[in-house]
Amino acid sequence: MTALKSFVLAFSMYSRIPMPHVRLEEKDMKYIFGFFPLVGAVIGALASGWLLLADRLGTGTITAVCAEIGILLLITGGIHTDGYMDTMDAVHSYGDRQKKLEILKDSHIGAFAVIMLLVYIMFEAAALAQIYETKNLKYIILTGFVFYLSRIASAAAAVNFKAAKSDGMLRLAASGADKRTVNVMLCFHFAVCMAGMAAVKPAAGAVLVFVQLAVFIYYRLWSYKSFGGVTGDLAGWFLCVSELCQIIVLAVMCL
Fold first, then answer.
1. CA distances for 22 relative to 7, 27, 173, 244, angstroms
2. 3-class secondary structure, 230
3. Which of 49, 127, 173, 189 could form a disulfide with 247 if both were Cys (CB 3.0 to 4.6 A apart)?
4. Could you tell me what percent of the chain has a pLDDT over 70?
5. What are residue 163's DSSP bridge partners?
6. What's the rounded Cα separation, in Å, for the pair 22 and 210?
7. Other residues' Cβ atoms within 10 Å of the Cβ of residue 235
8. Where would I find the beta strands (DSSP E) of 77-174?
9. What are 34-58's pLDDT values in tens digits?
10. Residue 200: which domain range?
11. If DSSP codes are grouped into helix, strand and coil, which group holds residue 163?
12. 147 vs 100: CA distance, rounded Å
């Protein structure tokens, strides 16, 4: 029952996909991050599915890409984008560590959050448009794997990296996690993701893994240096940046 509740909570907390209501208890958070990549697998399937359907219907590039970004935001509820925006405000404050952590907790939206979100969306739209216009089935399918792989890395970081604060939802979920079991689950997810990408286009899949690893290492070094560890907002930033970097690389490989 604990595993089932963790599965439901993973989808309830990190997506807007309808799930049965369950009472949140600390013991039921043991395996949340082990199931978190499945949220990415579903999102990836819907993302690639929409692009394939749009192509079949002859949908224009702008319409297809804007709808794709809208679908992604609706499915996630913008939870990771919110973390990305808060992080951008904190980073561009150029304050000390304590000041940055205080800005992360501030619910107000600053100018840099909006500016950097617009930059993010423009780069994401440009990359998705490039992939869509190639009409290459393999690259469109690989786009879906991006959301799976990024959540595997995000879950690994959440469970294994030091927390910057003693409170917050990420801290609560990570502290209650069965780390050994979750890491085994993540290894299984990674093997499945690798096998899936290899079946589609091995070389491109290997490049995506390399890009994700590079962002993962940077995130570890940067978060510890700038914030003293990770937080929920930083985790949202990491997920968004991981997805963007991989999608951009896919777009470049399409050229």
1. 11, 13, 16, 33
2. strand
3. 127
4. 95
5. 230
6. 38
7. 27
8. none
9. 999 999 999 999 999 999 999 999 9
10. 2-17+33-247
11. strand
12. 28
